[in-house]
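TA notes, week 10

Several of you asked for a full example with nothing omitted. So below is the full record: structure tokens for the whole chain, then the designed sequence directly under it. When grading your own attempts, check the secondary structure regions first.
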């Protein structure tokens, strides 16, 4: 179960949603929740296109690789939360 689904169920089962549960099936509630989440899209910084020919100093090449890896890890964490990441 992804994080977004867990958040929905926590919200849905909260006592404040009792009236909503009486008038709306859980399936519809989840569709509405998912629709609101699908409108969220996050654009991450562009990855660097660095080759070893670009820089003679290994630290600079490592920095770019580390930055790209960090961006990728962020994207994976955001997707795991049920939020779309722009490509």
């Amino acid at each position: 179960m992804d994080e977004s689904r867990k958040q929905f169920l926590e919200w849905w089962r909260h006592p404040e949603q009792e009236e909503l549960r009486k008038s709306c099936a859980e399936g519809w509630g989840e569709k509405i929740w998912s629709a609101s989440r699908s409108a969220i899209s996050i654009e991450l910084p562009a990855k660097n296109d660095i080759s070893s020919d670009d820089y003679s100093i290994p630290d600079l090449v490592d920095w770019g690789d580390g930055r790209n890896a960090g961006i990728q890890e962020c994207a994976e964490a955001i997707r795991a939360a049920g939020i779309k990441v722009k490509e």
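DSSP finds four helices and two strands in the chain. Use that as a sanity check on your answer.
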